[in-house]
Design goal:
The protein is an alpha+beta fold. The protein contains 9 helices and 4 strands, in the order βαβαααααααββα.
């Protein structure tokens, strides 16, 4: 089963949605997924370095106050906890995710795309790491087995910038309005961090249709 997923490493719903999909697939051993992570930036204009924490960043983006942003994130932490994730929003460092997406493309060339995606999400939401810093990205890339010289080349020469842009353009062509977005067998779309049972039901129906056809 072909599953393409548009998401961002600074998107909390994307991390939760990833975990929900994984839990659903654990219940469906007959399905052999071919997962590809596609780039999508929830805020392509975000600065690499910001003096604002995640609460003030969200408050400014949506024209609300800090208390509102704090409540939104508290709700997100609870949702993440139910998915088995430990979000540490007080330590999240808002940044631009473009270079992180480039590393995911590099990892894909070496069969380590999922490991890279997971490491970046964990670094941002659970470990309070700055995933916009080249030094941090190098450290994370090396932790999943990427070569430091390859990482340095990609970050200095923007080797995969065209692929990142192409992913975003493709998302717009197929009507993606937000992430995470799961595109299955070039035909079916699921948007958002759907509950595990929704994934199970949808994937089962799609897989049965394939068997019948």
């Amino acid at each position: 089963m072909k599953i393409e997923i548009w998401s961002d490493v600074v998107c909390p719903f994307c991390y939760i949605g990833k975990r929900h999909l994984e839990k659903a697939l654990e219940q469906l051993p007959d399905i052999e997924p071919e997962i590809t992570w596609k780039s999508f930036e929830v805020d392509p204009n975000a600065p690499v370095h910001s003096d604002l924490d995640i609460y003030d960043t969200l408050a400014k983006k949506y024209g609300r106050d800090r208390d509102w942003a704090k409540q939104m994130n508290d709700n997100m932490v609870q949702m993440a906890d139910k998915a088995g994730l430990t979000f540490n929003m007080d330590q999240v460092q808002p940044t631009n995710s473009f270079n992180a997406h480039q590393l995911i493309h590099l990892a894909n060339e070496q069969g380590k795309q999922d490991e890279m995606k997971e490491a970046l999400l964990k670094a941002y939401f659970e470990e309070g790491k700055h995933v916009g810093h080249k030094e941090t990205l190098t450290e994370i890339g090396k932790s999943v087995g990427l070569n430091s010289k390859d990482i340095e080349t990609v970050l200095n020469e923007n080797t995969y910038s065209n692929q990142v842009v192409s992913d975003v353009e493709e998302a717009h062509r197929i009507g993606v309005q937000g992430v995470p977005f799961f595109y299955i067998n070039d035909k079916y779309g699921l948007s958002g961090a759907q509950p595990v049972e929704v994934f199970v039901e949808a994937l089962t129906e799609i897989n049965e249709e394939k068997v019948i056809s």
